[in-house]
Every structure is written in C-alpha cells, then in structure tokens.
Amino acid sequence: MPDDLIKEITDLEFDSCTFESSVPVMVMFSAERCKVCEEVLPVVEEVAAKYVNSLKTYKIDVDTYKSIATRFRLRGIPQVLLFKEGEIKERIGGLFSEDDLEELIEQLV
Length: 109
What we know:
Blueprint: E1 7-8, H1 11-17, E2 25-30, H2 35-50, E3 56-61, H3 66-71, E4 79-84, E5 87-93, H4 98-106
C-alpha cells in the first residue's frame, strides 16, 4: 500500500482539502491512543486504494487538532466523514466494515 494513499492533514489545511475539493473526499478522524482507530485504519486504507482515482483520502489527529473534533461535533473516534461539493454528505463512526464504507462512498462517486 503506498504511503501517500492517506495523507495526514492539519487544521489549517482542512477546509481547502475538504470543502474546496473538486472530487469527493474521505477524512478519518482518529488518535494514536485509540485502539479501535488502529482496527479501522486498514479498512479505510483498503477502500482508499479501491477508489484512488475518484476519491481523496485524509487523516487528522483529533488530539493534536482538538478544534476540529469540536467543530464537527465528533462524539467519538474513529469517525469518517465524506465530503462532496463543499458539504458533509455522510459520516460513519466506531467499528465498521469495508462493505459499510464502500456503500456510502458508492453514493458519492
């Protein structure tokens, strides 16, 4: 899996990478301390690889960028938000399967 498949972004890059993107975007909100995040990351990586030509994928650490977690009213992590045309279209949190995530992405791409 290429290292640049999921780019880590900062709070300063967030809006330009998501709301201003011309293609659909998937963002995983996580933290290093989160064991469930570690379990979900391979699922997000697999899906990112499948949709590499039609979807940008990013990751942001909510411990480092607490304001992002507050801004999007995240109730827990991991949480994946899907953006398209300047809007949040879907969100999925906790443990989820590759099929669950792909089903949401199929509606966007």
